[in-house]
Amino acid sequence: MGERGDIVLPGWQTMSYFSDVSNLCWFLEPEFAHQVRRLHSLVGNAVVDDGRFIIVGTGSTQLFQAALYALSPPDAAEPMSVVSAIPYYSSYPTVTDYLRSGLYRWAGDASTFEGDAYIELVCSPNNPDGSTREAVLSSKNGKTIHDLAYYWPQYTAITGAADHDIMLFTVSKSTGHAGARLGWALVKDKDVAQRMTKFIELNTIGVSKDSQLRVAKILKVVLDMYELPGNKHRLFEYGRRQMSMRWRKLRAAVKASGIFSLPEFQSSLCRFTGEETETYPAFAWLKCEKEGVEDCESFLRNHKLLTRSGRHFGVEAKYVRISMLDRDETFDLFIQRLLSLR
């Protein structure tokens, strides 16, 4: 990307709270919205027609909270139950119960939930295990939030354009610019979009314009690369090559150790590449098969490997989550240390 991704913001620019007063999400920068629509149109991973409302947030975490607020009845006798099938993203229960809201509360595993009113969180591809997910519950009083942070070609096959009521995306997992702290939601229902916007207004009085303009420029550079004939500097292809190489190294190390196992994934036809492609999740869901080891996180920590225990994701401690997105030198050291274990 180099200097093409640079942006200069004059001191007088972005001084107002407002970006576009004619837009339902009045703090959404028009250029950022334009590049988001270009991005989904190119990749084909989500329906983003003019009937969809784009809500920008400070990362997808704020949007997740905004969606909970928007979907919870303000006058219900009991808080709305928030559920997700195990293994679920470890931040779901923490964020849900952080403010001890009277509107909603964490209710655990969606697969064992009994009730008619709920908000189900569907993360697909799933963090932590990389599996493709669909909602497990169905009820006229139930609501669903689809967290599609990892539904990008570097991680998985794009099998079609997702078309759900609320879909969450984040810059950190699409281009890797986590420090921008920016995410967006695609929302069908106008009333839900208005309530999400109101939550962000009350929470942070909008979202950083500087971040939006910076990310808009980055997305423009990424997308323009796909319009140049014969150009080899394309983000998603590069990312997929890197993920493929890392997963090959990891699977070889796991096989050599003889004491770990990893999930297996089926290949699928990717509409973005036009090829049959495999899944290379952003996280490895590692299980320790070594006799006598019940706590895989502690076992690996004793060998100078930092992971996150399966207990944070609602399952047993034999599982750990490992990031596949760290710097090359860190990842290579991880593989080296994993190979030393037997």
TrEMBL record:
The entry's keywords: Pyridoxal phosphate
Q: Does the keyword Plastid apply?
A: no
The GO annotation for biological process reads:
amino acid metabolic process
A GO MF label: transaminase activity
Specify the Alliinase C-terminal domain's residue ranges. Answer: 2-340
Annotated family: Belongs to the alliinase family.
Task: Please give the name of this protein.
Answer: Alliinase C-terminal domain-containing protein
Which organism encodes this protein?
Answer: Ensete ventricosum (Abyssinian banana)
